[in-house]
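Why do we care about 3D structure at all? Because function follows from shape, and shape follows, mostly, from sequence. That is the central idea of this module. The next example makes it concrete: a single protein chain, its amino acid sequence, and then its structure expressed as tokens.
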Amino acid sequence: MNTLTLTISGILNQAIALNIFVEGGPLFMSLILLCLLTSIFFVIKGIVNVKKSKGVAEKMLRLTVDSSLLGLVLGFLGSVLGLIMAFDSVEALGDPDPSIFAGGLKISLLTATFGLFTFVVSRVGIIILRLMIKSEKA
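And the structure:
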């Protein structure tokens, strides 16, 4: 019974995460996810190459910084575009239902939140990679 409950709970959590991903706008959320995965790849590749080649590790560090900033900027760009669409719907309806406006605001904040999450995760990896590079130089 516990296994069935855990399985159903896992499926529901995945469905909720997918729903949030789609609500945030598949284009921007996919681009931000790509930035997150790229940042994680660069951090791991940098950590692997710290002892082999400091030049490669430092290059991976710079690429991680760039991809994390790109994810952050894409998140805020998606947020601004979502706000513009929300205000367009308000303008088109004249006197909209507050729930419609709140839905537009929610959608606009999802991309910003995911962009910030991407940035924070990448920054933690950058800090770890910088510490490893500094410890190898000393």
